[in-house]
Design a protein that fits this description.
By secondary structure, this protein is mainly α. The protein has helices at residues 2-25, 29-50, 58-85, 90-112, 127-141, 162-178, 186-193, 197-213, 217-241, and strands at residues 121-123, 182-184.
């Protein structure tokens, strides 16, 4: 029953990724980005449910990786390209293909790595996080014409630089996915926060709900992902010194 529920959540994540692609092709970019974010949620839930089973399911692990390719590899690439580039650009296609290849390599490497070596961390940025970062980036820049940019900020925040910023972000995420940098997994996060895990999650969720009320959910999510991206390796290193 646990395996069935975990696989059902994984399938829900796949559905969100599939819907994201359809919405991107229909130019519904906001909903497409949110579909990827929802896929991130389902991906996290299926992992937690699967851990309740003392006997790991090989089928579930393979299914999860295949779904991640669609939801966090293909879907964000199509969303970013259709939203930002409109017309064909070979350099953008190349960058996004590199991102897709790195996400596939990342997942293949994860599948063959002994799980005891990743008790508290992942080796390389998880595809879930990279897909979430790109989706939240789109949520921010879909309203960039309405952003209140301070006069002292450089012109790089203007709309004409968005394609360049996006490609740089895509290539950075591609590199981090296949790097040897260690990033926290949920078990490591629980170990680091201890009894504060649930209050911390509720606090972050409360901020997100409040941000959504003020239509700032995109930048809030991007901030969450960015904090994970920047500080997670340092937390992993600290956990390693506590052994």
């Amino acid at each position: 029953m646990i395996n069935f529920l975990a696989n059902l959540l994984t399938t829900a994540s796949l559905f969100c990724g599939f819907v994201s692609v359809i919405l991107s092709l229909e130019n519904h970019f906001t909903f497409s980005a949110w579909a990827i974010i929802l896929s991130v949620v389902f991906d996290g839930l299926d992992g937690q449910v699967a851990r309740l089973n003392p006997i790991p399911s090989g089928f579930g692990e393979e299914l999860d990786s295949l779904v991640d390719v669609v939801s966090f590899g293909i879907a964000p690439s199509i969303l970013g390209y259709v939203f930002i580039y409109k017309d064909f650009y070979a350099w953008a296609v190349t960058a996004l293909f590199v991102y897709l290849v790195c996400s596939v390599f990342r997942l293949a490497k994860y599948n063959i790595t002994p799980k005891e070596k990743m008790r508290n961390y992942f080796i390389g940025l998880p595809t879930t996080m990279s897909g979430g970062i790109l989706a939240s980036f789109i949520l921010i820049y879909r309203k960039q014409d309405h952003l209140q940019i301070p006069e002292f900020m450089p012109g790089i925040l203007s709309a004409r630089f968005t394609p360049i910023i996006f490609v740089v972000l895509v290539l950075l995420l591609a590199y981090l996915m296949v790097s040897r940098i260690r990033y926290l997994n949920l078990d490591g996060l629980k170990r680091f926060l201890g009894r504060k895990t649930i209050p911390a999650v509720l606090f972050l969720f409360g901020i997100l709900v409040l941000a959504a009320f003020y239509r700032k959910a995109g930048i809030t999510l991007f901030t969450y992902f960015l904090i994970y991206l920047l500080f997670s390796p340092f937390v992993v290193k600290r956990l390693g010194t506590q052994k």
